[in-house]
Amino acid sequence: MSDKYRSATKTIIGAMRILAVDIISDDGVANAAISESADRLEELSLPDERICKWTDNINSGRHNYSTECGNSFYFEIGTVKGNRAKFCMFCGGEIESERQADDS
Fold first, then answer.
1. What is the distance between the alpha carbons of residues 100 and 30, in angstroms, rounded to a whole number?
2. Which of 42, 101, 103, 97 is nearest to 67 (CA)?
3. 78 in Cβ contact with 62 (< 8 Å)
4. 20-61 pLDDT, tens per residue?
């Protein structure tokens, strides 16, 4: 099948999640199978399709990042961009970095 006519993986996962809820199955097996398939497809998604937002919580001159996947990381020197970090080492998603707004 040509890539030209393929849906994005995120679109397919979303459709499967809707089907898992909407399909009427007396024993729930079809719903569970579709839901698990969506989960597995999401796990197998290529890293370039995942985005992991890193929030820079600058503290004492050191860049401490909170990751969207629930972890934290810091650079002794520099930032995500300065260290040319591209992918999250925890979830494999592409890093999208943002700076936390000042409280002042």
1. 43
2. 97
3. no
4. 999 999 999 999 999 999 998 988 876 557 899 999 887 766
